[in-house]
Amino acid sequence: MPVFDVLPQGPTLTAHEALSGVFGSISLASWIFLLVPQLVENYKQGSAEGISLAFLAVWFIGDITNLAGALWAGLVPTVIALAIYFCFADLILISQCLYYNIINDRKSRRKSTRSTLTQDSAEQPLLSRRDSSIGLPGSHRRRSSAASRRRRESVNRNDSLARIVEEESGHKEWIKNTVSIIGVCIIGTAGWAIAWKTGVWVPTPDDNDAGTDLAPGAQVLGYASAVCYLGARIPQIIKNQRERSCEGLSLLFFMLSLLGNATYGAGILFHSVEKEYFLTNLPWLIGSLGTMAEDATIFIQFRIFGDGAAQTAAVV
Fold it and tell me: pTM, whole model, 2 decimals?
């Protein structure tokens, strides 16, 4: 969630600067709504097993260093306020995940205890019922054969149902996600237009970029946050690969992340590609554009492994 971009003010609006403003506003809208889909997904599932806590922890560290760098550099209050919002949003998601993990762990332990207590009492009646059928020649084989056929038919029906459910839910999910992404783009564009018309946002002349140097300490924190953002997704990618599933993850969460990173980088590059300006914003360009490859890896995992809908339907 990089937010550093020190832009001095100026009066002239060019096509490149307008695009820079629009992309920056869309990026801002993406970051504001970013964590909502995963919070909703965890609530619907009543679980947070799908998301890696290591992923969230490293991301939170990145947002902390991002906030520290913004304060050190003395950026505008809106940028600092957004960095604070990121940190609080991270804490909300981490707290929700810890809550569900603790609650579900307790439920699992209670269930295991009850199962152990009832196992011995359940074994004896089962053995008695098995013994009562031994004296009827062929009856056990006939019942077993019929039961096997019924099980195979049930499995086939469940497999077909699982495929239908997966296709329908996948289709609806992609439509919902696409509409959400379009909505975020519209909100971001409208926000920029309103800000420009009201004078809250004004274009920045390129010839002022040379004077936008950051303090060395703020620059170091910028690179530290970039490293955290780049490394944060690695535990999640490993977890998905190990479990061969993306169940419990919100695809929209990563789509908004991709949109936010792409538009943030585009906003910087459309403003200027002058060497001084580029080097000033390099850490946050690395943090935003570099994570896009990792988001793409998670999209591939969604495509290969799915989100567990088929497996859940088959079990039901």
Answer: 0.75
